[in-house]
Automatic annotation (TrEMBL):
This is [histone H3]-lysine(4) N-trimethyltransferase. Keywords: Methyltransferase, S-adenosyl-L-methionine, Transferase. The lineage of its organism: Eukaryota, Metazoa, Chordata, Craniata, Vertebrata. Its EC number is 2.1.1.354. One of its GO terms (molecular function) is histone H3K4 trimethyltransferase activity. One of its GO terms (cellular component) is nucleus. The keyword S-adenosyl-L-methionine applies. Residues 1-68 form the SET domain. Transmembrane segments: none annotated.
Length: 221
């Protein structure tokens, strides 16, 4: 029972770029309820947990966070919530299955192939491994079968961007990163930190390519 309590109530601690660095227990914040369309998000400054709003909150409106990655389509979110937290979500996003058509846009066989390719990636440790990852994604992207709003295409673009950064291919990294901005705006509206981090990454790449006006415009968002 104690292990289950810890598992259900702990928070993943992340750094300034929203990368996981550990877990921690914060009893008061564990009282927050879940929504797949939350009005708040958890961020960290070191080990200090902060609750930030991602949109305007009405007087008397309940503060909510998402217990899971909200980018997933409704069916996958429901499965994870039931498996990990033992409840089914009935928020409006789940009831209406909103944005599922965009998240799974394109031919099913195409996005399933991309999904498998992304899930097979383990964080590469050498440039040769990064080159292998990038080559596979370049091949899939060259087929042009999926829109960038498809969540598995979006994850692949993110991985391709990471590969190019690790290989110091800045121009190509910027190309892939720029393609992610509109899907990020669609799926992480308002003041969501994941969108902010992506804008920062793309802005820094634009700056490195002497695209100063574009970098300023991106960072101002």
């Amino acid at each position: 029972p104690l292990f289950l309590q810890v598992t259900c109530n702990c928070f993943t601690i992340s750094n300034g770029e929203m990368q996981d660095v550990g877990v921690g227990l914060y009893p008061s914040m564990s009282l927050l309820n879940h929504s797949c369309d939350p009005n708040c998000v958890i961020v960290f400054e070191g080990y200090q947990l902060l609750l930030r709003s991602v949109r305007e909150i009405q007087i008397g409106e309940e503060l909510t966070i998402s217990y899971i990655e909200s980018l997933m389509p409704t069916s996958e979110r429901q499965k994870q919530l039931l498996r990990q937290y033992c409840f089914e979500c009935d928020c409006l996003l789940c009831q209406n299955q909103e944005k599922d058509s965009e998240k799974l846009a394109g031919e099913e066989h195409a996005w399933k192939e991309v999904k498998d390719a992304v899930n097979e990636v383990r964080y590469p440790k050498s440039k040769e491994e990064w080159k292998h990852v990038l080559a596979r994604f370049q091949n899939l992207l060259s087929m042009g079968c999926l829109p960038d709003t498809n969540i598995y295409q979006l994850k692949m673009l993110d991985c391709a961007m990471d590969a190019c950064i690790n290989l110091e291919s800045w121009e190509e990294a910027l190309y892939y990163g720029s393609r992610t901005l509109e899907p990020y705006r669609l799926y992480y509206p308002g003041f969501h930190p994941l969108r902010a981090v992506q804008l920062l990454r793309v802005g820094k790449l634009q700056y490195s390519q002497d695209m100063f006006p574009q970098a300023l415009e991106t960072l101002k968002q």
